[in-house]
Design goal:
By secondary structure, the protein is an alpha/beta fold. The chain has one domain: Aldolase class I (TIM Barrel, Alpha-Beta Barrel), CATH 3.20.20.70. The strands form two sheets. Strands 1-2-3-4-5-6-9 form a seven-stranded mixed beta sheet. Helix 2 links the parallel strand 3 and strand 4. Helix 1 packs parallel to helix 2 and helix 5 packs parallel to helix 6. The longest helix is centred in the first third of the chain and has 17 residues.
């Protein structure tokens, strides 16, 4: 069974909201305001399943995005509001936007103009890092946060459900190495059942595989987290905080830097 869950964001610029990890965050949604487009169809995605469709609004143009972001930043600055980060997330995978590199450069310019102390973050599922232009754009942001939920092929496919059959754990781990020392790997810890298939990326074998993958990638740090809101798939289980702490300590013992959570 799946819950009737749909898109979260109905505009290109949203917030600011308070992020547990990033602080006061102004969001940028490069996907449609009335639909979802993603190269994954994750069981835990807060924006719902891809089956809801792409809607009719289409992707926001670079000009529209620049106008709305400038207006919001100007208004916030005029009100004396603080801002820690501008975060690309939204109703799907932001790097799928054909003008993603151009929009990143525009955002960095506006950030420097209105909030030079703020960071620019991108939450990406890592499916587009094989494109050199996308990869170079990600290298230009302050927080390049890249997904790796499992280093075991079957588990990754069960949880993340990539659209591209050529997307594999081996390919993505190799490609993630280009962000050595700067990329931040984000891993959702979850277990449960969907469509008759059980999965659990917190077993000793799964954590061993993740540790080996992290060692190959050599990220700046790893972010571990679990479910925080409702999910489109039922029968998913949130991993208790104490268990995440235990997993983090095991990773740290192996030389992996784990971000506070």
């Amino acid at each position: 069974m799946a819950q009737d869950q749909t898109v979260l964001f109905h505009s290109t610029i949203f917030g600011p909201i308070r992020s547990r990890r990033l602080g006061t965050s102004l969001g940028v949604n490069l996907m449609p305001a009335d639909g979802k487009i993603c190269s994954f169809d994750c069981l835990y995605c807060e924006a719902g399943f891809n089956s809801q469709g792409a809607g009719k609004a289409g992707l926001p143009s670079p000009e529209h995005t620049e106008h709305d972001l400038r207006e919001k930043l100007r208004d916030m600055r005029g009100r004396g509001e603080s801002l820690d980060v501008i975060t690309f997330s939204g109703n799907g995978e932001p790097t799928l936007h054909p003008d993603f590199p151009e929009i990143i450069d525009m955002t960095l310019r506006l950030r420097d103009e209105y909030y030079p102390e703020a960071k620019v973050s991108v939450l990406t599922n890592s499916t587009r890092i094989f494109d050199p232009q996308v990869a170079e754009a990600l290298k230009r942001v302050d927080n390049n946060i890249l997904k790796l939920d499992s280093a075991v092929e079957g588990t990754m496919r069960a949880i993340d459900r990539p659209n591209d059959p050529t997307f594999t754990v081996e390919r993505v781990v190799e490609a993630l190495g280009q962000f050595k020392g700067t990329g931040i790997i984000q891993t959702m810890l979850v277990k449960g059942e969907y469509d008759g298939r059980r999965f659990d990326n917190t077993t000793p074998e799964e954590i061993d595989a993740l540790i080996e993958a992290y060692k190959r990638i050599e990220p700046k740090e790893v972010m571990l987290y679990s479910l925080d809101r409702s999910t489109p798939a039922e029968k998913l289980q949130k991993i208790p905080h104490e268990e995440i702490v235990r997993i983090a300590r095991r990773m740290e013992d192996a030389g992996i830097t784990v971000a506070p959570f």
